[in-house]
Amino acid sequence: MTDNRIQLCKAQSEEFKALEDFKQIASPAQWNIHYVLKSKVKLCSIKKKNYCTATKQVEYDLLPKFIEKLIQHGRLMNLSLIGKMHKELTIIRKASRGQLQRSKGKYNNRRRNNSPDSCSTITRGLLGPAIINDAQTPLTEEEHQLLNLGPRFIYNDPQTAARRRTTELATLKRKIKNRFFDKKVSPCRPVEQFIVELDEMLQNLHNIPTTTINNNRPSINKKKKNYGRLIKRLKFKFKSTNTILRKTDKSTVFHLGKVDDYTKKSDEYMEKTKAYKCLGTIDPLPDLIRRTNKYLLDLRLAKWISQKQYEQLCIQNSNDVELAHLYYLPKAHKPGTPLRPIVAGLKHPTIKISKLLDELLRPLFDQMASKTTITSGFELLKHVQEWSKSNLRQNTLFCTIDVTDLYTMVPQVEGV
């Protein structure tokens, strides 16, 4: 970091020297034009910033601050002007709400297409197994019932919830504020009120005794299950029998497999693709951090990125990053139970650069691929209806294509 700051200081000193040279070369007339344009450019930038801030505040149903100040000081006395502004704000709000509803509809369609509904869950429970025990691990009745609840089950533990509530609320508050700042809007007091009310609501939900909830239900003498003890027992059993517990790919059931089977299939996959290797005791993270920061510094010195972008993309603390790792989800719906490889790299040193490139290229890609991209079943029906007017016949066949090892087949240099 010290070397980076030294190089930045050198770059800034060169810019300062260039400014001093310009002062000596420029004529008085040029300096007068410079001062006039400088004030106008600054005024335009301030107006643009205020306009963006007011627009975002209107989108979030917040009254812009300058209107509040004018009303408080009594400067807006023209009722017709206030009515006109209120009408325009209402139009903007309706447009933003309509856009929000459309985006929510797209999200719900994608979620509906990618997640099983109640009918599929009932069918799975009647016709399919709730647990796929390929490892033949012996389970008691209580352990089997716990695993039958599936990966989405969360048992009620007020003590654990109380320990997690503080940290998760702080994380949620930080994320909400970051989103407001990204839109150039100050979060102000509503965010604080929302976090406080959410904290009180969670406390009330966890403090409600189960007896008051079940008062209207028929009383059945059942022994309360100690899920914490069951989970500890399952962890010890899986460790002693070399068993791996995973959620199956494209379903909501658990799969129990042997460590040797996972290791064998993983070695075969890495040998076939030649894209991954086991690091062992080697830790390439420090060198990767150094090369990433050096690359960003070179871009900054070449003026390809701004100082703000450099500060956002560079790695300040090595504890905030970690190497990407490879893990697998079993495909229990296919013969032989192959493994689906997944690379987890949310804290990789280059993840911020990837997100920036995605923000820059995503609008262009979406625009170019809009006619050949289908995001939901509703859009598919619309395309089929359009194709049926000219190209769809009785002998037309619909087929799906599954590419094996797609990401490892794409060459890295050509792909970038």
UniProtKB/TrEMBL annotation:
Residues 103-113 have a biased composition (Basic residues). Residues 100-119 are annotated as: Disordered. This is Reverse transcriptase domain-containing protein.
